[in-house]
Amino acid sequence: MKTIVLMGDPNVGKSVLFSRLTGVDVIASNYPGTTVDYSKGRIILKEDAFEIIDAPGTYSLSPTNKAEEVAVSLLDKADVVVNVIDATSLERCLLLTVELLEKRKPVIIALNMWDEAQHLGITINVNELENLLGIPVVPTVAITGEGISELMQRMDEVHIPKQSTVTNDDQIWTRIGHIVRTVQTIAHRHHTFRDRLVDATVKPGTGILTAMVILFALFWLVRLLSEGMIRYCAEPVFKLYHGPITTLSNWLGPGFLREILVGKLINGNVDFVQSMGILTTGLFMPFGMVLPYIIAFYLVLALLEDSGYLPRLATVTDNFFHKFGMHGHGILPVLLGLGCKVPGVLASRSLETRKQRFIAIMLIGIAIPCAAQTAVIFGVLGHHGMRYVAIVLGTLASVFILLGLLLNRSLQEECPELFLHIPPYRRPGWSAVVKKTWMRVRWFLAEALPLLFLGVLMAGILDTLGFIEKIASFATPFMKTCFGLPGEAVPALMSGLLRKELAIGMLVPLNLTSAQMTIAITVFSFFPCIATFGVMWKELGGKDLIKAVVIMILTALLAGGLLRLLLI
Amino acid sequence: MNEKSVIQLQQGELATVVALHGGHVFQQRLRSAGIKEGKTVRIVASYPFSGPLVVEIDGRQITLGKGMAQRIIVAMEK
């Protein structure tokens, strides 16, 4: 089967085009570096099946980070390259085009964002561009699907380009300059009030103010949405569900099956948080407690991603992130980590150096609470008082800052400077936002549900065998002195390694004081779940993962011990 | 000639790029971002300390670190 690879500069719309061509959903956003790995799909063109690959963006065939290396390595596989170009930045994009032609790859150009170019008063003579490059060029608007069928129609016009006469860089730039002057005309635009407003969001003073207002508003929006969904959706549904599950519990009667499916009865009743059965806690934790928060977070994140604000936020926070050995781009993996640490860790690939990636991954793994953790922090500690929520979040923030400063000092490598294209602001499309949120929610469910059920099952079996009691009594002296917690907290914290939500069902029955609960939740927040450990191993390798675990244990001992001294 | 480094410009000022001081990789990277000789740049934002610079070229904005920006030489426009 022949392979088609989509290549182009970052943030030109490759992923949107890929979704259009294949029907395979991939995450697309309005900032450079969204795609850090490739996705594969299949299309049928004139009765022949093709494999089609969506590559990460790269400005040239000389890669500057890991994601770009992936893109360049995919080129070898390509029988046909669809070079996606941003029609509003023709000159910038042509470097890659010329490089692809020099490699003598059969190339077809998708001249994307055609509508936006027209809107900006940029006209490109497509026929002339085809003549000068000697390859097919098709104007497209990937978002609406315009030009996609013509692109597919003309895919068989590609051919191996002639041996070029260009030998050095200067000649490449001369050639690009000549092409741009011949085919492109730009109508002069005056600087408008709107432009000034847009600029204000990236300037030092006003930009920082904007960032604080936007982040605060988004945080507030996430809470408003998630609490609304819990109050008006999740709670009523589980109230209705309580009847049938009680009937089932009575019908099953005491025994192993009830232990596993329904769990323990608390004061003779089914309790969704504490019962720890597959059909009670196993369903309530993901759907009743975490899912509303996940949906709210990802809806808001999608709005933020698609608006084009994130590269501006990276610019505004650049000075701050340099203190932690990263540049402003580090805010992207961190933001994604607030949803789920796995994509957060993966997104660190868009950082150039190993030191930056190591620090980003460490901070995400240890000090950034994922959506499930945040839901747990608010869901459980909220009842004890917002003061305790603030203590946990404040501790995590302090650890983020201290660990960042420390890691930056202790690692030698120089941090490269920020180099970032700022896309124009775009109004996020509702269907794209909803689709992206749904993809991530689906991913959460597929990832979390099996592990949760497995965890509840294992906890049930180990409890029946008396294992949990043994671990608890063994750990009691240590836990008492270090954290002021009972030994029973250990099995709870260990189950948190599988999924964060699990630990709660085991912590709540221990009847901890507010201070103890705060310490327990803080300590367990420093250890990510098993899926994150997996991806950390993949990205860092075994040696650095061991370092990470050592840092986690030290952080937990120090921060947990300190809180014990202060609170108890 | 009134030539200086782009970091010496104030926010809002316009200038023409006349030279990129640096190695092959550096020049290639900047040119592939549209920063090249003969282009007009506008300083959108200039951060204090070692913070970045935001420049606009051909209607597109780019954030870049001061160390890189220092090596972009411009001539003032009237």
Please tell me about this protein's structure.
The complex is a heterodimer of chains A (568) and B (78). Chain A has 568 residues and is an alpha/beta fold. Chain A is built from 25 helices and nine strands. In chain A, the strands form two sheets. A six-stranded mixed β-sheet of chain A has the order 2-3-1-4-5-7, sandwiched between helices. A two-stranded antiparallel sheet of chain A has the order 6-8. In chain A, helix 3 links the parallel strand 4 (80-86) and strand 5 (107-112). In chain A, helix 9 packs antiparallel against helix 11 (281-307), helix 21 (489-498) runs antiparallel to helix 22 and helix 23 packs antiparallel against helix 25 (542-567). The termini of chain A are far apart. The model of chain A has no long low-confidence stretch (mean pLDDT 91). Chain B has helices spanning 24-32, 66-69, and strands at residues 3-5, 14-20, 40-46, 53-57, 60-64, 72-76. Chains A and B meet through helix 3, helix 12, helix 13 and strand 9 of A and helix 1, strand 3, strand 5 and helix 2 of B. Strand 9 (419-422) of chain A pairs antiparallel with strand 5 of chain B, so a sheet runs across the interface.
Summarize the entry for a quick read.
By secondary structure, chain A is of the alpha/beta class. Chain A is 62% helix and 8% strand. Chain A contains 25 helices and 9 strands.
